[in-house]
Amino acid sequence: MRILGTSRRRSHQLRMSELANMCGLSLSGMTRVVNRLESRSLVLREKAPDDGRAWLAVLTSAG
User: Taking Cα atoms as reference points, which of 53, 52, 31 lies closest to residue 43?
Assistant: First the structure.
């Protein structure tokens, strides 16, 4: 996920909704992509600390 790797954030994480917008996908489409990446241990999901409804996609060291 080049977008996460070049993220302005040093932690290489983005909200799922931001990531979907940047990729031109619906949120459900982005969820399917992240599911596949997560199964390969390339990304993981974390709850957003500032919004209990939001999830972050976080690039792993393998990603």
Answer: 31
Structure tokens at 61: 């060291």
- This prediction has a pTM of 0.77
- In the prediction, which pLDDT does 56 show? 93
Rounding to the nearest 10 degrees, give the CA dihedral for residues 34, 52, 21, 44.
-20
Whole-angstrom Cα distance, residue 50 to residue 9? 16
Q: How far apart are the first and last CA of the chain?
A: 7
